Amino acid sequence: MRVLVTGASGFVGYAVARRFAEVGHEVHGLTRRASGLPVGVERVDGDLLDEISVRKTVAQIEPEVVCHLAAVVRVRESRTDPVKYWRTNVGGTLALLDALAETRTPSKVILASTCAVYGEPARQPIREDARPEPSTPYGAGKLAADRAAADLAATGAIGAVSLRSFNVAGGLPGHPDRDESRLIPKVVAVAQGRAPELVVNGDGTTVRDYVHVLDMADAFLAAVGVCEPGTWQPYNVGSGRRTSIVDVIATTERLTGRPLTVRHQVAAAEPPELTADSTAFQQATGWSARRSGLDQIIADALEAGRSGDSPDGG
Predict the structure, then answer these.
(1) Which residue among the candidates 85, 118, 138, 235 is catalytic per the annotation?
(2) Which residues of 37-75 are buried (b: 16+ CB within 10 A; e: fewer)?
(3) CA atoms of 226 and 99, how far apart (whole Å)
(4) Which family does it belong to (predicted)?
(5) 77: which of 86, 115, 270, 296 lies 20 to 30 Å off by Cα?
(6) Known catalytic residue at 138
(7) How far is CA 44 from CA 3, 37, 61, in A?
C-alpha cells in the first residue's frame, strides 16, 4: 500500500513510518524538519499549514493509507499558547482532510488522537464511551480534529480511526524522545547527566498509563484493518498498567544502579489518574501492549538516550 505519514520525523511518527516500511509498504514521510527518516521511507518536505502544498502532495502520492501524527503536543504549553495549538492541530488536520476529500478513491486515515479528549474522568480505566470533556486547549483541539474526521468519513470520502493514546514512551535505537517536558525523557536525562534534577509536582503518586512507542506503532498498523470507507471509530490505546511517578523513579534507579536527584514542589492541577481500557481495540484487531512493561519502557528509553540524538516533536 501507499502510505503517507505526517510528522514522520517525530518520536511516534518515526516509529510508525519505520513499522510500515518494515512490512513492505511504500511509505512517504511528510516532515518540515531536516532530520533523518527511517530506512525505506521517502522524504516529502512540507508543512500542513501550507494548504496548497498539502493538496499537491496528496494528489501526487494518492495515498491508500494516511497516518496523521503531525502536531504540537505539550499539554501545559497549550494553556499559555492556545492559538498555536488550534492553528496546528485543527488547522493542519483540516488542510489534510480537505486534500483527501478530493482524491479519486477513499483513503484510510489513522489519526493520532489522545486521552486528553476525555479531560479528567472520575471513572478509571477510561473506556471509549466516556463523555469527552477536554480540560485543556490541546485536548479540545484534538477532539475537534477527531470530529472533523468523523464528519468527512460520514460522506464516504474517507474511512477514519482515531487512536486515543495514553502516555507513549520508550525509544528506538538512535531515536530517543528528547521532550523533557515529559516524565520519562526527563528521568532519563537526569540519569544520564544531561539534566541536574527531576522536579516532581506533589508527592509522586499521580498515576499514568505508559505504552511503548513500538506498541503504538503496531497499533497504527493494526488500525488499518478495521478502518473502512464511510466510517469513523475511536479506540483507546494504552497498556492498562497503573504507574506512578514514584514507580518510574524506583524502576530507573534499580535499572541504573544509581539514585536520581529529585526535588519535590507544590502539586500541579492535573488529573490524579489516567489509565486506559483498551479492550475494544484489542478485540477488534488482536493488538496487545506486549512491550509495555515499565522495565522495558525505561530500559529502551535509557538505551535510546545513549545511542543517538533525535528531534523532540511531531
Answers:
(1) 138
(2) bbeebeebebebeebebbbebbeebebbbbbbbbbbbbb
(3) 22
(4) Belongs to the NAD(P)-dependent epimerase/dehydratase family.
(5) 296
(6) yes
(7) 12, 10, 10
Determine what percent of the chain is predicted with pLDDT higher than 70: 98
pLDDT of residue 308: 61
Q: What are the chain's domains?
A: 2-168+210-238+278-287 (3.40.50.720)
Residue with cell 478495521: 226
* CA separation, residue 107 to residues 34, 61, 63, 99, 274 (Å): 27, 11, 7, 11, 32
- Which residue reads 486521552 in cell numbers? 115
pLDDT at residue number 314: 38
Look up residue 94 and give its amino acid. L
Residue 35: the pLDDT is: 80
Q: Whats the size of the chain, residue-wise?
A: 314
The C-alpha cell at 244 is: 506512578
Instruction: Tell me the average pLDDT of the chain.
Output: 95
Cα dist. 32→21, 42, 188, 311 in Å? Answer: 20, 13, 27, 11
pTM of the shown model = 0.95
User: How many other CB atoms are found less than 10 A from the CB of residue 182?
Assistant: 18
- Retrieve residue 95's grid coordinates: 488542510
Cell of 82: 492556545
The C-alpha cell at 247 is 514507580
